[in-house]
Design a protein that fits this description.
five-stranded antiparallel beta sheet, Ribonuclease iii, N-terminal Endonuclease Domain, Chain A, 67 helices, Rossmann fold, six-stranded parallel beta sheet, globular, single chain, Ribonuclease III domain, alpha+beta, 1934 residues, 44% helix, RNA-binding
């Protein structure tokens, strides 16, 4: 450079050099500052802050290409991984406290109090380990650690199978903890030791060390820990023994042993090691260092990089990939890969030089790959072991990015060749670059020939503009428009392959026309490039969903179409030129070609030219002049036309021709025939006689194919006439052609002769010669025949037979001439006015627009969305009036449109006048609300929602069964209070609880309920039935007024309640000797057990107050005695020693001298021997309450204890020894006779009368006798006389159920107050309780009946409101509005907002969990929801992802899971309850309280009446009067009746109304009236049967029969011949089949004209309006019309449903198989009985009918074998008669359906034996997964039976009582009377054997059945019938 251009800066060169270091240095400094900034935000306070470099490492990913990354902390990704990496950084920098602080900063709560650890230690210290102390010490020596709490170690080695031996703990919780402990310790060890290895290798080291197989192998077995595992499973012992033996026999190959299958490694061993680690952690009080000190030697040797061994397959795969070879998975032993010099990179780096890495592959060239596949590449063979390349056929190459490369790689892989290498050079055509550079600068239209690269130029532009938008962060779009769907998909694929932009295509197949603005906005935000047809873009722009300002580039393919009315042209005119921010435009076309490309050779390389052939022929047609003259002059074809017209005239004389649609059919047939005639004439003139005959045959085929099965008789006659005409034409033409004419076409000379004779034309002859001159036909890709006057189809190559050489002519000269002659004169007017802008209508809010051009299609779209049926298609009618030179267009819209008539502006052109009228109609429809702001029909707004609801797309949404929600429970406010904590007297409201039993002599003590609140009248005066096993007790509640209590009485009453409720249903002692926690009397201090949310008092009354109207007198004597007992217990336990309570000081030596043989020493007094029976006593050592049954004089405390186990040694305990050793009590009076006591028991659910509930379920005893299992013997001196009558004790067992019902009624009253419906007669609380009670409650009532009624009431209220408020809305819009309001999602939302979900009772009453004030529950369900209150919660869980949810069961905080639909059902049930209790006004008030507006003004009814009074009925007055007489009602407004019988097809006769709106209203009216009738009449039937009755009564088919029965169809006003034909046919079928109506309807409802049922509903709506909404009057009129209404006696289910219920009832599985045989559906139904397999087949045109036929036949088979449906079986002899008549009727119906004779079921031939299920045989057991959770084994067994078609197994359950040592353990635990259950199971395998097995004892019936089912599964597994895999349960969420 010249020096004069340079300036000396005078800076040292070193400064310049340093400048190059600064960017990297400052980037690192900025990064560290960022890390410090994050550290300050986390704000962990410590003397040693976390190093900033650690935090920097934690926020650095691998993509940064640094020497460090977050991967060492945890191999993860992005944001969540960064959080984990920061957690690791804080652990490294500050230990566990720092990590916990960071976790807390994140928002994860991991804090806990220190006493939680102490509590865990205390719990474990309660486990008894003395019998196993030696084993514990041996295990401790192996571990190397002495446990402070031995129970922790015992728990860590105890398997869950020990439960059967009475062990109540196992290692699973400790294993959960230990798993995380060992994971952390080993990871930390590896992290510290190997700081320089790759993160991936660090992960491999951890995986090799922290896994169950490693712990089982290297720890448990090596240290022989498995010897100490406590379990009770023979299968587990067998697996452990086998595993240990395999290890001992395979010391040199342990890895391959483990890799042979982890299923052979008992997971229990690894779990035990982890649980021991958890136990050590708890025992050391979370000292991690101590745990590692203990476990490091146990775990050694820990995996290191030197001894790390990957699985062989993974190592081999990595090696081959590294060296560029493919791995063939078919392995042989042909030496070792390593012997050939190939080493894994891990070994190569340890001393051997690694081979050079394969050079990185450049971008592959697609064309090169494709060419390589077309040639053979020989492989040089070096030795024998290198085999020759094998030929591979069928290689298919996908022409897309990566396709050829993938195919080539696949070929190399299949041939086992090394991967190819590529060398890439850059190349671009010069003309493409030139066009591309111009298109970048300005809007461009590229005119290039096909194949010259136009698409590639557009792709380059799309890529350039897309990257530009990305850099700027611009959200604008790139649009690619193509005129056809094929081009759209093609361009989409091209853009997707060649760019990395987000691209999507749009076409009509995606139903984009129905998309909403939200759908399009989502697409805009998701994709950068949108490919679509111009019509779609035009529609979207017109709707205002998009605008061109959002578009940056618009590519227009085939842009030469942009003229006339093409969407391209409309886009530019309507939107592009009017847009402010215009997009960049690039157009492409190949026509017209304005200039040639400069370098033609470049194009010819890729686009070879087509071969051009010119042929000239004599254009003069040569046809037999004689035949031509005869054909035209003699008018053969016109003559045939005359014959055809004559036949139509004859047909027109029938009554069917009176209707307008019949005229349309005739006109259409004439038009089609005219077209056929033109084609035949054209072929005869232009192509010759041969082609004319072929064309005629094609026309005949077209006519035949149009004759479908769905056509009615009139259409079939028309088609037959048309076909007959064409066949006669064919005959006339064939007469002119010789039989051997085909021989003339075989040679060239003969073809010439055929031309001379006129069989083919000279033009066709030349075309045949061209094809023959081209040589081999297969080499001809296509042939294009171009001529100015005609257009020919493209012919693909094929054979050269005569028929294939002929082709159809698209355009006909004759047709063109006909069009010209019949052209509308208006079309001759100048087109200048049409091309002018005719105006448009814009919606300012959305930008939507409609022009005059698009308004016609919009009006048609609007009409298409109006309600329709197959007899009426809503469409606009255009009528023109000519006034001088101007046309005026009048549009008549269908009767159900918002506007009926629109008159448009006048114009000189009729087409323009039509468009202007449509534009005006669009404007008025939008202003009236019929079109929304996007100019779409409003009915479309809800169509997508309705469709989603019907198809199940929203199945997981609100108000559906699959959605589960967590909600709280509302508490009854009336039960709360604070008075129990006051220190003075109080006044409470008293309510007497009187009990009367239906068994004489059975007495119960009356109680009084004292509460702070005044109860509602219907709760305060209530009778409640309580159901015991063999008797019923009626509880009567009555108010007593205010009751005053002083402080002493309050305290004594509280003690009485605490003593009895805890003594009977809870525990009076806390702690136990076995747990190490000292026992303490629960009431030993004045600590309050009362909660303010549950505060009331239940006190006994004197027996003198037994009657209802007696004065209330509380039994203070019994209450005071109970308080004295509490005082006594406090004294003896306050002075007790270490060995137990001191009891001899009270009634021992001081009074011993005065005792006599007739006196008994009790703990607190002396009692006479004969006075003890019936005395209520309290055991001082257990706190349990008993009743004395008798004094057993033959037994004393020195007698052998009757609870000894039979397994005890000869050293038998006496009673005295037992109490001494068990409780440390030394009996002072051992020679006293023992007392026989009746134990207290848990409360039962006494609210349901259904068999099977707790209160009335009778169980078999295990020995078959009714023995007293709850009787015990006890020394008297251990008992305290409470001095309370036995009747009081009996009443206590009634109180839980009674109070639960009272609390529920209070809750119902509370909800009633919230709703606050004011009425003189409030809604009964029991009705509201019924409405909030689900079936899961197992009560005698549920919401099901009320829900059914409420659904109808809500439907009626909403329908009536919509009908009156919106007189302009058609039936479709009204229906969509109604659906939106009454759908479950809406009801769920409204109900949740009102808090109804908190009131719902969704679980059966659990008496054991019920608690009274002062009562401490021993059956707690801790809350695991992580929530702090019981308010309504918004937490949803999908059962598809977590099926462990328990529905309805609440935790102790009141949280419970509800099915989302339950809330919607409860809302409907409450509507029903208010309707029952207060009529329609009450129901409407509740609906309003919900938030649904159904109110309307009275004058709206008057307005509806006034509107209907305007319909002219005088011409039909006689018909109106006749119809009124049939209905039985005289209409005040005749127009209402006329409207109700007018079909929409009357529109064409000038009628502007139809019945659709009245039908919408009448549908809801009849639904409500019939439902209410059934609800009132059948109060005791099952809700499901009530639903069936309503379904059988409220349906269109039933209403259609009503119409026919009363001949109402005669008065239907319509204009459709098809409708008349179908009604006539239906009436005839009904008249011929009155004995067989059921099968008639089941044959297919499609044959029942829906119009008839609609007419009945519309008449009901008309009566309702005419009576001014008088529902009683409507029912008075319609009840006789609808009679007979379905009853339970005449209700008939469809055969398939009846068969399904019958099989389910008897325990058989129904197998259904459906196939298609031509047009017939074949259904095969199978039922496997114990001895035979019943198979029946049904054949019908639809699947439902086929199944029904087969089901009917199977029902006959089953009935012959004595199997009856439960409905019939319960009706005795009448049922048999009913079945007989039913069978006869159904049999006859089936015969009619099939039109054939149905044979009786064969007794031998057709009933086949049981068959083997596919895959089920001696060698193919069924694979089953058994989930070890409640119900899991039974479900698996049922699934096996279903798959094998075995009858379901039967269970027999007996109850079992513990004895011996088990009695000792139960007595010590305070649960001596706990029932256990044992179930037996019987399985009948058809044609094989009967298997019986017995399960283990379980605490409940269902669990015992699971045990029996599991035993049966193991037996079947043993027999080889199944192969089971046990899956352990997951924790259930409740």
């Amino acid at each position: 450079m010249p020096p004069e251009l340079l300036v000396d800066i005078d800076v040292p060169y070193e400064v310049l050099k340093s400048s190059y270091l600064l960017p990297s240095l400052m980037y690192r400094v900025e990064s560290l500052m960022l890390a410090c900034q994050l550290r300050k935000e986390i704000s962990f306070c410590s003397s040693n802050p976390i190093p900033s470099f650690l935090i920097l490492e934690a926020i650095t990913t691998l993509r940064c290409c640094e020497d460090f990354s977050m991967e060492r902390w945890l191999c993860s990704k992005t944001i969540s991984d960064c959080a984990k990496a920061l957690l690791g950084a804080y652990y490294v920098g500050g230990g566990l406290p720092a990590a916990l602080a960071f976790i807390k900063w994140l928002g994860i709560d991991t804090e806990f109090e220190p006493d939680v650890v102490e509590e865990a230690i205390r719990t474990a210290s309660g486990w008894t380990y003395l019998p196993k102390i030696h084993e514990i010490e041996t295990l401790e020596s192996k571990i190397g650690y002495k446990f402070t709490v031995k129970g922790l170690l015992l728990e860590s080695i105890t398997h869950a199978s020990q439960q059967e031996l009475g062990v109540f703990f196992c290692y699973q919780r400790l294993e959960f903890l230990g798993d995380s402990v060992l994971d952390l310790l080993i990871t930390w060890h590896l992290f510290q030791r190997y700081k320089d290895i790759d993160p991936g290798e660090l992960t491999d080291l951890r995986s090799a060390s922290v896994n169950n197989e490693n712990l089982a192998h290297k720890v448990a077995v090596r240290h022989k820990l498995q010897q100490h595992l406590q379990h009770n499973s023979g299968l587990l012992l067998e697996k452990i023994t086998e595993f240990v033996k395999r290890l001992e026999d395979s010391d040199e190959n342990k890895y391959m042993l483990l890799s042979n299958g982890t299923s052979k490694v008992p997971k229990v061993l690894g779990d035990m090691v982890e649980s021991i680690a958890g136990a050590v952690l708890i025992d050391t009080k979370l000292d991690l260092d101590k745990v590692w000190e203990i476990f490091e030697p146990l775990l050694s040797p820990i995996a290191t990089p030197e001894n790390l061994e990957l699985p062989p397959l993974r190592e081999l795969t990595e090696l081959c990939s590294h060296h560029g070879y493919f791995l063939n998975t078919t392995c042989t032993n042909e030496g070792d890969m390593y012997e050939k010099g190939f080493l894994h990179s891990r070994y190569a780096s340890k001393g051997m030089q690694a081979e050079e890495k394969i050079a990185s592959h450049k971008e592959y060239v697609e064309k090169s790959c494709s060419l390589m596949l077309d040639i053979e590449i020989p492989m040089p063979a070096k030795h024998d072991e290198v085999v020759n390349s094998k030929n591979v056929s069928g290689v298919r190459v996908k022409v897309q990015k990566g396709g050829p490369r993938t195919t080539l790689h696949e070929l190399c892989k299949r041939c086992q060749w090394p991967m190819p290498t590529f060398e890439t050079v850059d190349w671009k055509p010069s003309h493409q670059l030139a066009v591309y550079e111009v298109a970048l600068r300005t809007n461009t239209i590229a005119v290039l020939e096909t194949g010259s690269g136009k698409t590639m130029i557009s792709i380059m532009l799309v890529k350039h503009f897309g990257e530009e938008l990305k850099k700027r962060g611009d959200q604008r779009l790139i649009l690619f428009l193509a005129p056809t769907v094929h081009l759209v998909v093609q361009q989409y694929e091209t853009i997707k392959v060649h760019t990395d932009l987000d691209v999507q295509y749009y076409c009509g197949a995606k139903a984009v026309d129905a998309w909403s603005i939200a759908c399009w906005q989502k697409e805009v935000f998701t994709y950068q490039v949108m490919v679509m047809t111009p019509q779609i873009l035009l529609d979207v722009l017109r709707k205002g969903f998009l605008n061109l300002d959002m578009v940056h580039l618009m590519v227009i393919d085939e842009c030469h179409h942009a003229w006339g009315n093409h969407p391209y042209n409309r886009l530019m005119k309507e939107f592009y030129h009017k847009s402010v921010l215009k997009p960049h435009i690039f157009g492409m076309t190949a026509s017209p070609i304005l200039r040639k490309v400069a370098d033609r050779s470049e194009i010819n390389m890729f686009v070879p030219l087509a071969k051009e052939v010119n042929r000239y022929y004599d254009a003069k047609l040569f046809i037999h002049e004689e035949f031509k003259t005869k054909l035209r002059n003699i008018n053969i074809m016109p003559y045939l036309f005359i014959q055809y017209d004559a036949s139509l005239v004859q047909l027109g004389k029938s009554s069917l021709d009176n209707y307008n649609d019949s005229d349309d059919i005739i006109k259409a047939s004439k038009k089609d025939l005219s077209n056929y005639y033109d084609k035949i004439c054209h072929c005869m003139d232009e192509l010759g006689l041969v082609c004319a005959i072929e064309a005629t045959k094609i026309c005949i085929d077209a006519v035949s194919s149009s004759n479908s099965a769905d056509c009615h008789d009139f259409v079939m006659v028309i088609v037959a006439q048309c076909k007959s005409f064409l066949e006669e034409v064919l005959q006339k033409l064939a007469e002119r052609l010789p039989e051997d004419f085909e021989l003339l076409l075989k040679t060239e000379n003969d073809c010439g002769e055929a031309v001379q004779k006129g069989y083919i034309s000279s033009k066709l002859y030349e075309l045949i010669q061209i094809i023959r001159s081209l040589g081999i036909p297969s080499q001809v890709v296509c042939l294009i025949f171009v001529e100015r006057d005609i257009t020919a189809k493209v012919m693909e190559s094929g054979n050269l037979q005569q028929r294939d050489l002929l082709f159809d002519i698209i355009k006909s000269k004759h047709s063109t001439v006909d069009i010209a002659l019949n052209r509308d004169q208006d079309s001759l007017v100048s087109r200048v006015s049409i091309d002018e802008d005719l105006g448009a209508y814009y919606v300012d809010s959305t930008g939507a627009s409609v022009t005059a051009e698009s308004s016609v299609s919009l009006i048609n779209t609007y009409c298409q969305n109006l309600p329709r049926d197959k007899y009426f298609t809503p469409k606009p009618i255009f009528r023109f009036t000519l006034d001088g030179e101007y046309y005026e267009c009048t549009i008549t819209l269908p009767p159900n449109a918002a506007i009926q008539t629109i008159v448009g502006p006048a114009n000189q052109n009729s087409h323009v006048a039509k468009k202007l009228a449509c534009l005006e109609a669009c404007k008025r429809l939008h202003q009236s609300g019929a079109l929304n702001d996007h100019l779409l029909p409003c009915v479309q707004e809800h169509l997508n929602d309705v469709k989603a609801e019907k198809t199940g797309e929203s199945a997981k949404g609100a108000g559906t069964t699959k959605r589960k929600e967590l909600h709280g429970t509302t508490m009854a406010h009336a039960m709360s209070g604070t008075w129990a904590h006051q220190n003075d007297g109080i006044i409470l409201q008293g309510y007497k609880l009187n009990f009367s039993c239906n068994r004489i002599g059975e007495n119960y003590s009356a109680f009084i309920l004292l509460t702070d609140a005044i109860l509602d009248q219907d709760v305060a005066c209530k009778e409640i039935d309580l159901y015991l096993i063999d008797k019923m007790v009626k509880a009567d509640i009555s108010p007593c007024g205010p009751i005053a209590l002083d402080k002493k009485q309050v305290d004594q009453g509280k003690l009485f309640q605490e003593l009895f409720f805890n003594g009977l249903f809870g525990k009076l002692f806390t702690g136990s000797k076995s747990s190490g926690v000292s026992r303490k009397f629960l009431l030993s201090d004045d600590r309050s057990l009362w909660n303010t949310s549950n505060m009331y008092m239940l006190l006994p009354l004197d027996s003198s107050c037994a009657h209802k109207h007696d004065k209330v007198s509380i039994n203070w004597k019994a209450i005071s005695a109970s308080a004295s007992v509490v005082k006594f217990m406090r004294e003896i336990y306050s002075s007790r020693g270490q060995n137990g309570p001191v009891v001899d000081s009270k009634c021992g030596s001081s009074e011993a001298g005065g005792s006599t043989p007739d006196m008994i020493h009790l703990a607190n007094r002396f009692a006479e021997l004969h006075s003890l029976k019936g005395v209520v006593v309290l055991a001082i050592h257990t706190g349990r309450i008993y009743c004395v049954l008798d004094v057993v004089t033959g037994l004393t405390a020195d007698s052998p204890f009757d609870g000894n186990s039979r397994k005890q040694s000869s050293d038998t305990w006496t009673f005295a020894e037992y109490f001494n050793k068990k409780y440390g009590i030394v009996l002072q009076h051992p020679r006293q006779p023992l007392l026989l006591l009746k134990s207290s028991h848990n409360p039962h659910n006494l609210l349901s009368s259904k068999p099977g509930t707790e209160g009335n379920f009778i169980l078999k005893r295990s020995n078959g006798k009714n023995v007293a299992l709850n009787h015990v013997h006890m020394p008297p001196e251990l008992l305290v006389d409470i001095d309370v009558p036995y009747e009081v004790l009996k009443s206590f067992y009634l109180l839980p159920s009674l109070m639960y019902r009272v609390e529920s009624l209070m809750l119902a009253c509370q909800l009633r107050k919230e709703i606050s419906f004011c009425s003189s007669n409030p809604i009964p609380s029991f009705l509201i309780l019924e409405a909030i009670t689900t079936l899961r409650c197992c009560e005698d009532f549920s919401m099901e009946r009320l829900e059914l009624l409420g659904d109808s009431v809500l439907k009626y209220a909403v329908s009536c409101s919509l009908f009156l408020k919106f007189p302009g809305k058609h039936e479709g819009k009204l229906s969509s509005d109604r659906i939106k309001i009454i759908r479950n999602a809406t009801l769920h939302s409204l109900g949740t907002k009102r808090g109804i979900q908190g009131y719902i009772r969704d679980a059966a009453f659990e008496p054991r969990r019920w608690v009274a004030p002062g009562h401490i529950s021993i059956h707690r369900v801790p809350c695991k929801c992580g929530l702090n209150d019981n308010e309504v919660l918004n937490r949803i869980l999908d059962t598809n992802s977590n099926k462990s949810i328990v529905i309805g069961k609440a935790c102790d905080r009141g949280h419970r899971w509800l099915c989302s639909k339950t809330i919607s059902d409860c809302v409907e049930a409450l509507i029903g309850a208010y309707y029952v209790g207060g009529g329609l006004p009450a129901a409407l008030a509740f609906i309003k309280w919900l938030g649904i507006d159904t109110e309307f003004e009275p004058d709206m009814v008057e307005e509806a009446i006034r509107t209907a009074s305007g319909w002219t009925y005088l011409p039909k007055i006689h018909e109106i009067e006749t119809l009124e007489s049939k209905i039985g009602y005289k209409f005040t407004v005749k127009g209402l009746l006329l409207e109700s019988i007018t079909h929409a097809s009357q529109q064409e006769l000038g009628v502007f109304f139809c019945y659709q709106r009245l039908e919408f209203l009448g549908d809801s009216v009849l639904d409500l009236l019939i439902t209410w009738h059934l609800f009132q009449r059948y109060k005791d039937i099952d809700p499901g049967e009530l639903t069936d009755l309503r379904s059988a009564s409220v349906n269109n088919e039933n209403f259609a029969q009503v119409a026919v029965r009363h001949k109402l169809q005669q008065h239907l006003q319509h204009n459709s011949g098809l409708l008349l034909e179908q009604i006539t046919e239906f009436v005839k079928r009904l008249e011929d089949s009155y004995e067989n109506k059921y099968m008639l309807l089941s044959n297919g409802s499609s044959k029942v004209p829906k119009v008839l049922g609609d007419m009945v509903e519309s008449i009901a709506g008309a009566v309702l309006i005419d009576t001014k909404l008088d529902l009683d009057k409507v029912w008075e009129i319609f009840e006789p019309l609808l009679s007979p209404i379905a009853t339970p006696e005449n209700l008939e289910l469809p055969p398939l449903r009846e068969l399904t219920e019958l099989c389910s009832h008897h325990g058989y599985f129904l197998n259904t198989t459906c196939t298609n045989e031509g047009d017939m559906n074949v259904a095969v139904l199978e039922v496997q009985l114990e001895d035979v397999l019943l198979v029946r087949e049904g054949r019908e045109k639809n699947k439902k009918a086929a199944k029904g036929q087969a089901a009917y036949l199977l029902l006959k088979d089953l009935e012959e074998k004595g199997f009856l449906h439960s409905r019939y079986a319960s009706k005795g002899t009448q049922a048999e008669e009913k079945i007989a008549s039913h069978k006869e009727s159904v049999e006859k119906s089936c015969s009619l359906m099939l039109d054939i004779e149905i044979p009786m079921p064969a007794k031998h031939d057709e009933v086949v034996n049981s068959k083997n299920v596919s895959g089920v045989g001696p060698g193919k057991p069924v694979a089953l997964t058994v989930k070890m959770q409640k119900g899991g084994p039974r479900t698996a067994l049922y699934e096996l039976c279903k798959r094998c078609q075995w009858p379901m197994p039967t269970f027999e359950t007996v109850d079992w009582k513990p004895s011996g040592d088990q009695m000792d353990e139960c007595t010590g635990g305070g649960d001596a009377n706990r029932h256990m259950f044992v179930s037996g199971i019987t399985l009948h395998i058809p044609n094989s054997t009967i298997i019986k097995r017995k399960g283990d004892r379980r605490p409940d019936k269902k669990s015992s059945q699971d045990s029996a089912a599991l035993t049966m599964l193991y037996e079947l597994d043993k027999q080889g019938r199944c192969q089971i895999e046990v899956q352990q349960p997951t924790e259930r969420i409740s």
